[in-house]
Amino acid sequence: MFINGLRIKMVVAATLIAACFIPATASAQVSRSPVAPRRELVESVVREAYEKFKGDTGGKNADYIPYLAQVDSRLFGVAIVSADNQVFTLGDVNYSFSIQSISKVFTLALAMEELGPDQVFQKIGSEPTGRPFNSVPAVVDMPTHTGNPLVNAGAIATTSLISGKDANEKWNKILAFYSKAAGETLKLIDEVYGSEAATNTGNKALSMLLAKYERIYADPFESVDIYTKQCSIGVNAFQLARMGATLANNGINPATRKQVIKREHIPYVLATMTVAGLYDSSGYWAWHVGLPAKSGVGGGIVAIVPGKGAIAVFAPPLDEAGNSVKAQKVIEYVANKLDFNLYSPASVGLK
Ligand code: GLN
Q1: 296 CB near ligand 1 (under 6 Å)
Q2: Is any atom of ligand 1 closer than 6 Å to the C-beta of 133?
């Protein structure tokens, strides 16, 4: 568990499990890590981070989607959901913002449910592009053309892999899958969709280029339209944290206890987030934070602490790479204070 209120009991329980040879099925129910920090510590560190960065005025709302330019840039919410469904929230956590590129993670997971990881990586790829998220030259230059499932070209191609008898059936399948990951019914934000659909000429161009290379697997414009809808799904920070916690918890939603994503697919999803989740800042992020994460131009970032939980932060102003400035700062602060960096032995209790 992400937040551990009963650390000593947990260690005793783990010892008992080992000593009694309780079958794997019984121990598989335990969705908590014996090295997770105590709840009080998590709360105080998140409060500290919130206070420290709430006045930060760095960055600028995305404005290439007109709707996003007019969202209040002072909005700021932080939510944590642990693998055993403990919740801690602060600030504007009920405000529904567009999920944007964070959606790409869940469409990737859905594509893997349908085709399996080998097919997905053969059809899309998994390398960073070294270019901005909407790059045309990357599509031309990359040997796979699609790059990876988290840049726009690869994400549109991933959306094109989702099966259905028509566009509506594909869209409804995507929305239902995200809702299962959140444990709540999610909805399209119509104004975001309208605003983005009226201005997404760049993504349409990418889809046509992919068609030239035979790296898109359904009608290009239909795929862009479904992709634009998936990016316009509304989530609040809490719902986003719970979607992240589903990834942290072997694909099981901690609230509904339903297996949403096959457990064997989770490492591939998290590896992809490590490679490209923050676009061309993914290297910086791996270096300083060491957690798989995904950002969206709506201002959200979700970071996954495997086996422990997820933290989601919403704050609209973005840096040059398209990542929320405050969200990055809060997650970096919290991850360092709580020893979440996966590349640090401290993350498994070795200090
Ligand atoms: N819908 C946005 C786009 O395609 C998503 C980009 C993002 O969140 N980085 O441009």
Answers
A1: yes
A2: yes
Q: Is 203 in the pocket of ligand 1 (CB under 6 A)?
A: yes
pLDDT tens for 297-319 read 999 999 999 999 999 999 999 99
d(CA 303, CA 55): 22
Phi, psi of 276 (to 5 degrees): -140, 10
Q: Per the structure block, which two tokens stand in for 277?
A: 């989740």
Q: Is it the case that residue 327 has pLDDT exceeding 90?
A: yes
Burial (CB count within 10 angstroms: exposed 0-12, middle 13-18, buried 19+), residue 304? buried
Residue nearest to atom 6 of ligand 1 (CA): 101
3 state SS of 48: helix
CA-196 nearest atom, ligand 1: 1
How far apart (Å, rounded) are the C-alpha atoms in residues 293 and 282? 9
Say what the alpha-carbon torsion angle 54, 328, 68, 96 is, to the nearest 10 degrees.
-70
Amino acid code (one letter) for 311: I
Confirm or reject: Cβ of 300 under 6 Å from ligand 1: no
What is the per-residue pLDDT for 35?
A: 85
Task: State the distance from the centre of ligand 1 to the C-alpha of 304, rounded, in angstroms.
Answer: 20
